[in-house]
Each structure stands twice: as C-alpha cells, then as structure tokens.
Design brief:
By secondary structure, the chain is an alpha/beta fold. The chain has three domains: 13-125 and 255-317, 3-Layer(bba) Sandwich (FAD/NAD(P)-binding domain), CATH 3.50.50.60; 139-251, FAD/NAD(P)-binding domain (3-Layer(bba) Sandwich), CATH 3.50.50.60; 330-414, 2-Layer Sandwich (Enolase-like, domain 1). Helices cover 23% and strands 30% of the residues. The protein is built from ten helices and 24 strands. A hairpin with a 4-residue loop joins strand 13 and strand 14 (243-245). It is globular, with a radius of gyration of 23 Å.
C-alpha cells in the first residue's frame, strides 16, 4: 500500500485511490485492521471519517461517561498507525455526495476523490422518535463522544435526568449520570430491563441492584410529550399523565442505519444497504459493512457479526474468495460492574428450562434444553460458564446424560486448570 499524506481543502483533488472507506467508526476501523493483515493489500487506501477525532471504541463510551475510563483507553488506532500502514486518513470532513458512475466523491469541504472501489461503513444514528418537544435543548441521544461530553457538561448535583430505554446503552447511560451526581430515572416501555437478553428472574435481580444504587427504574412507562421552557427541556409527561422533572433527557431506544448517502448514490436499500455474502452492494465494486448494511433481512448492532464481516470483506478486497454467514451470538454484558451472559433463545418455546438461584449472593443461571441440547442460556452474577454453554449450543451436543449437573458448568475432565 502506498502512502500519500495530503490534507485536502476547498476544491482540492486527491490522486486516484484504489479503495476508499467512507466511515472511520468501529466497522471501518476494524476493516483497515483486517486489511493490514493481508499479504496482498489494495494499492492505496483512503479512509474518510465524519467526526473530527480518530476512531474510538463506542462500546466504552459508558465507562468514559462515568469516569471509569479515560480518553486514551477508549481511543483506537491513531494517525501514526495509519501512516505506518500507508493508509491516508481524513477526519472531520464527511463525504457529501458519491457519483458511482464516475467513481468520484466530494467531501463537505469540497475535496474531490477518484476511486476504483468504495466501502460504505457509515454506521448508524441514535433513533430520535417524533415526539412533541423533541427539538428542545437538553434532549439528546447517546451515540458519540460528543454526546458524552454534552452529558458531562449537563450533569450537576441535584439536577434531574430521564433516560428512555432499559437496554444496555440506556442502563449504562443512566448509571453514568447517577455517578455524576444526577437524580436519574430510567423509563422502560416493557415489563423488564434488557428484555432481549434476560428472562424475568435475571431482569428482576438487575433491577433490584440498580434501584439499590439509587436509580429510579420505571417499567411499563412511555413518554407522551416532552415539556420545556424558553427552548429547554424541563420535564416529560408520561402516557398515564404523570409529569417527571428532567433537566436532561437521553433517548437510548435503538439506532437507525445511516443510509442517506448510499440511497442518494443509487444503492439498493431496505432498512439498510442491501449486501450479499461477499458484502457487495447492488453496484459493482461497491461494498458495505456494519450497522449500515443489511444481509438476508438482518441488520446489526452487536460487535461479533460486524467483526466477521470485516474479516470477510478484507479478504474479498484482497482477491480471496470468502463469504459471510449468520451465526448465533453470545452476549457478555457488563452493566455497571454487574456480570451478565446471554445466548440463544431466551424463554425458548418447546424447551425444558432448568435453573439455579442463590438469592443471598445474587447468582442465577438458567438453561433451556430441547431434545437434550442447549438452545438458550442466561447467567447473572457468576458468568464463568457462559462460554462453555455457548460452545455446547453451537455444537448442538446432546447433554441429556449431564442434565443433573449442567448448571454447575462443564464436567471436571473438560476444565482447564
């Protein structure tokens, strides 16, 4: 890979590049890491990032917010690494338009780039619902480093925060704001927290722990409108009529794929940019990966499948035959120091559950078996055996003969000292 160090401004034209990657988030960054491993790399690579800072780990924004990690720990590869790999990097100058027929793009500042191949790694945006008052100051999503800085600036002793969403991101945001001194309420539309990962018992243990720390958790609650004064949020009115005070309102209710650039360029899009097993889009020499892509009607938010996509695409771009396929995902969650593990079907139908609960030590394990095979697992507190359960799920091992001791991990002869 050749390296060309240019800082385009105005109407500058960068020399033709073999491969341009639009997006320097976690997916785009993982792709260049995978490309760096390949023996036959693209002749030249240009990465264009929207944010002014270098790539960082979005998964770690919550501990950054809470002060448990610093900026250096959250950052990924810096400019020096890109130089060493011979990769050109432009930060803070997002792509404004792409002409796929001419194989050119223009950035927001007016810089023009000619390319042979292009990868869309544009990620996603925080989902902001159409609610009365959504435009008020102090109403925000939780998606970027800038969001973290805004939340930290808003936090003060005695101030009230409302976080909408009882998923992992919402709970981490709420706990971070609580640690910053805000009186924080979590609103969850459903009847339990982390409803996609946990069953009712594990969710109950989690709620008890968080409320014990001082979080106010309200289940079966939805916002009817956001209220404010002089252009700034002051509270939220729930559908049951209650009014909650809010100096800061954080919406953590999922994301929407960022496909506006791809759609304008003429790529076939559904919920996201449609790709095949080689991460090709509807146009030749145009690819997509990560949260902005859709494969077999699946879109992505977890790291594991995106990492596999990056590995596949790196090989494809370097001339190898490789294909992406869907695989079960295990989720190892860290919610404010609480260990959780989840995989497979939770509350699986036509399955036999077995469970272990130690209320005193707040440890819980539940497995769902179908024909003697693990099809789902939830662990709370002690998650040591989670990876082993997931291995059994993937291999579809018949564990009928081990049923009596399954809740206590793998047989002694399989354990590594």
């Amino acid at each position: 890979m050749s390296s060309q160090r240019s800082e385009p401004t105005g109407e500058a034209m960068i020399n033709h590049v073999d491969l341009v990657i639009v997006g320097n988030g976690m997916a785009g960054n993982r792709l260049v890491q995978e490309l760096a491993k390949q023996p036959h790399k693209p002749e030249s690579v240009l990465v264009i990032g929207e944010e002014p800072r270098h790539a960082y780990n979005r998964v770690l924004l919550s501990p950054l917010l809470a002060g448990e990690m610093n900026a250096e720990q959250v950052a990924l590869q810096d400019a020096r690494w890109y130089r060493e790999q011979g990769i050109e990097l432009i930060s803070g100058d997002p792509v404004a338009s792409v002409d796929l027929a001419a194989r050119t793009l223009v950035t927001q500042s007016g810089a023009q780039v000619e390319f042979h191949r292009i990868v869309f790694a544009t990620g996603s945006r925080a989902n902001m619902p159409r609610l009365p008052g959504i435009e008020l100051d102090g109403v925000m999503g939780f998606r970027t480093w800038d969001d973290v800085e805004r939340m930290q600036q808003s936090a003060s002793d005695g101030a009230h925060a409302v976080v909408v969403g009882g998923g992992l991101l919402g709970l981490e945001a709420a706990e971070g704001l609580r640690k910053l001194g805000m009186q924080t309420t979590v609103l969850q539309r459903g009847d339990r927290l982390l409803n996609l990962q946990l069953d009712a018992t594990a969710a109950g243990l989690l709620r008890d722990e968080l409320t014990g720390r001082g979080l106010n958790v309200r289940l079966d609650s939805e916002i009817d409108e956001i209220v404010g004064e002089q252009g700034r949020v002051t509270g939220v009115r729930l559908k049951d009529g209650q009014l909650l005070k809010a100096d800061l309102l954080v919406l953590a209710i999922g994301v929407r794929p960022e496909i506006s650039l791809a759609r304008a360029a003429g790529l076939r899009c559904n919920r996201a940019i449609e790709v095949d097993a080689t991460l090709h889009t509807s146009h030749q020499n145009v690819f997509a990966l990560g949260e902005c892509c859709e494969f077999e009607q699946n879109t992505y938010g977890l790291v594991a499948p995106i990492w596999r996509q990056a590995e596949v695409l790196a090989r494809v771009l370097c001339g190898e035959e490789h294909a992406y396929s869907e695989q079960p995902v295990a989720t190892q969650l860290k919610v404010s120091g609480i260990s959780l593990f989840s995989c497979g079907e939770i509350d699986a139908c036509n399955a036999q559950p077995i469970e272990y609960l130690d209320s005193i030590h707040a440890e819980y394990r539940k497995l769902w078996l179908r024909d003697g095979r693990i099809v789902g697992a939830v662990l709370y507190g002690d998650t040591r055996f989670g990876p082993w359960y997931f291995q059994q799920l993937l291999s579809e091992q018949d564990l009928s003969h081990q049923r009596a001791r399954l809740l206590f991990g793998p047989p002694p002869e399989t354990q590594v000292a």
